[in-house]
Amino acid sequence: MEQILNWVTENQQIIYVVVLMIFVGIEVIGRVPSVLHTPLMSGANAIHGVVIIGAIIVMGKADPDNYLALTLGFFAVVLGMVNVVGGFVVTDRMLEMFKKKK
Amino acid sequence: MTQNILTICYLIASITFILGLKMLSNPASARKGNSLAALGMSIAILGTIFLYKNDETGEYLNNYAWIFGGLIIGGIIGTLAAKKVQMTAMPEMVSLFNGMGGACAALISLVEFNHLAAETTVVISHSKVLIIVVGLIIGSVSFAGSMIAWGKLNGRVNDLSFKGQNILNLLVLALALVLGAYLVMQPHHSLLLYGILLLSLLYGVFFVLPIGGADMPVVISLLNSFTGVAAACGGFLYNNKVMLTGGILVGAAGTLLTILMCKAMNRSLKNVLIGSFGGNNTAVSSGTTSQGHFKEISLSDTAMVMSYATKVMIVPGYGLAVAQAQHSCHELEKILTEKGVEVKYAIHPVAGRMPGHMNVLLAEADVNYEKLLEMEQANEEFSTTDVVLILGANDVVNPAAKTDPASPIYGMPILDVELAKTVIVNKRSMKPGYAGIENELFFQPKTSMLFGDAKKVLQDLCAEIKNT
User: Fold this and answer.
1) What is the CATH number of the domain that holds B427?
2) What pLDDT is recorded for position B436?
3) Residue B18 forms part of a structural domain
4) What pLDDT score does B433 carry?
5) Which residues pair with B296 in a beta bridge?
6) Considering the domain boundaries, does residue B30 fall inside one?
7) Which residues, numbered 339 to 358 in chain B, qualify as contacts with chain A under a Cβ-Cβ cut-off of 8 Å?
8) Which of B160, B205, B317, B409 has the most neighbouring CB atoms within 10 Å?
9) For the CA atoms of chain B, what is the radius of gyration?
10) If we measure between CA atoms, which residue out of B17, B10, B20, B83 comes closest to residue B46?
């Protein structure tokens, strides 16, 4: 029990960020019209591609002789990048069509 | 110094994510919001590559060749895939990209665990292992689930459900969790990690397999928020605020979006996940409604009826999207408008395969944004409408949702097309729709059936109307 409490105190900054972000996430999306649901889902999909940062760190920390870590890290970077770039480009393509015509 | 700059890069990126999402919820600013978030992402990526220092050794990152190689290859694949995909295949694409993100998170967990296990001198921190295991489980469930969802949407994977499936699913998940908990306590049994990986992948497959195609958007949205949480686990692991904020933001927003979608269909999330809606209820419901007689209408009659109407409402459904008929549909709208007919579109919130999917498709065909009515507006206008033309939509106009408590879609809000004077339904055949249930609307005296592929029918209809 005490371990858990200590852990909470040690990581309170992170816990605060998590709690506040949950509220921000809900608040920001609350008033979206249903026409934008698909682009919004796609945009959110691109944003969670931020996981690529982790992939880059893994890759960059890997020992140059450790081929397992290098290979796995490399795949992680490729997949993460597909998620980020693909996500943003696809969202942009969708939104391009929503332009108001004069 | 460099660490401070990196902190500021991450701060900027986090702010752009929040602002980007905010702007994405407004049609006027949506595109800018997307670009803003992309800019923030680039700053975060570049900052990490050049400024990140390893906590343990205090060195900059190595293996630049590998990193840039991966970024370039991934960038090219992502751009090509996103540019080439048809607008109708958009939901599949989002699911696929989501799976990539999930796989990325799972791989990070794998490498980090091996890294941790290799260090025999340091005492392994339990909380670190916990986060790694959580990231692995969520990431691989999201990956496997997204792949199945992708396969289902493009028709490569069929629904599969059998008795006791829910129990089996829960058992697989429980086993993965128990193994995970054990590994956190005893981190030296490193092979267990692969067992957890396998079970999580299996659970991802089992979790999505029985869910009917009509519910796929909800599932994709849910998996989307899963991947967000998996990314946030990475943020915990590296004490990296941008991963944390981005991941949790998407996790929270994705969950809310999932709930909003369920609400549009008037179903609870639990019902979607456990009820296996489109899967095995077919037999129950098809027996309850009688076959009855339906009326067919010829193309020239349809043309006649429509060109002499004052107000026509078009109800597009997934059938329109499959037939790639959005351009022909716009063509019909233009011809009718030239003849003085008022034409509008009634869009059900879940028309197509994702909420808002139909709007994207029609926007692609240059249909004016203001002609698209949302369900509430449309329902008010049906009573003053002369002709409703239903193009490949079925469940969203099924009166059983109001009248038949035994129907699986009972309670779902629908478009009240029967308030209009005439209803013309274009379908390829009398086969039931996505949810696998009969539609008594087709047998009502007001309704006429116009069989054929939506695109061909619309083209012929345009030609016919021009001649009258």
Assistant:
1) 3.40.50.1220
2) 64
3) no
4) 63
5) B449
6) no
7) 347, 349, 354-357
8) B317
9) 26
10) B10
Q: Between B45, B69, B257, which is nearest A29 by CB?
A: B257
Q: Do B414 and B343 fall within a single domain?
A: yes
Which chain B residue is nearest to residue A68, measuring alpha carbons? B111
Does one domain contain both B264 and B299?
A: no
Burial B126-138 (b: 16+ CB within 10 A, else e): eebbbbbbbbbbb
Tell me, what's the pLDDT at B278? 42
A51 vs B62, B115, B230: nearest CB: B230
Query: Residue A55 CA to chain centroid, in angstroms?
Result: 12
Neighbours of B233 (CB within 10 A): 26
Residue B76 lies in a domain: no
List, for chain B, all residue ranges whose pLDDT scores fall below the cut of 70: 120-122, 213-214, 265-267, 275-292, 353, 432-436
- Chain B partners of A52 at a C-beta cutoff of 8 Å? 45, 104
> Cα separation of B145 and B218, whole Å?
12
Q: What ipTM was reported for this prediction?
A: 0.92
Helix (H, G, I), strand (E, B) or coil at B428: coil
Chain B contact for A8, CB < 8 A? no
Boundary of a domain, candidates B256, B280, B304: B280
Task: Give the model confidence (pLDDT) of B91-125 as tens digits.
Answer: 889 999 999 999 999 999 999 998 888 876 667 78
User: In this structure, what token pair is assigned to residue B35?
Assistant: 């670009």
Residue B179 identity: L
Q: How far is B131 from chain A (nearest CA, A)?
A: 13
CB atoms within 10 A of CB B2: 12
Asked if residue B257 and residue B329 are part of one domain, the reply reads no
**Nearest CB partner across the interface for A44, out of B21, B69, B355:** B21
Q: What share of chain B is helix, strand, coil (3-state, %, to 5)?
A: 65, 5, 25
- Point out the domain boundary residue: B280, B306, B333: B280
Residues of chain A contacting residue B105, judged by C-beta atoms under 8 Å apart: 51, 54
B22 CB within 8 Å of a chain A CB: yes
| Residue B285 forms part of a structural domain | no
Residues B446 and B303 in one domain: yes
Task: Specify the pLDDT at position B5.
Answer: 92
pLDDT attached to residue B90: 83
Residues of A in contact with B244 (CB under 8 A): 14, 17-18, 21
Q: Does B297 touch chain A (CB under 8 A)?
A: no
Q: How many domains does chain B have?
A: 2
Q: What is the pLDDT of residue B284?
A: 40
- The whole-number pLDDT of residue B122 equals 66
Which chain B residue has the Cα nearest residue A35? B356
Cβ–Cβ contact B178 with A under 8 A:
no
Positions of E strands within B156-256 = none
pLDDT at B283: 38
Domain that holds residue B268: 89-280
Task: Show the tokens assigned to B77.
Answer: 């694949």
How many angstroms separate the CA atoms of B326 and B319, rounded? 10
Which residues of chain A make contact with B238, given a CB cutoff of 8 A? 53-54, 57
Strand partners, B314: B345, B389
Instruction: Check CB contact of A24 with chain B, cutoff 8 Å.
Output: yes
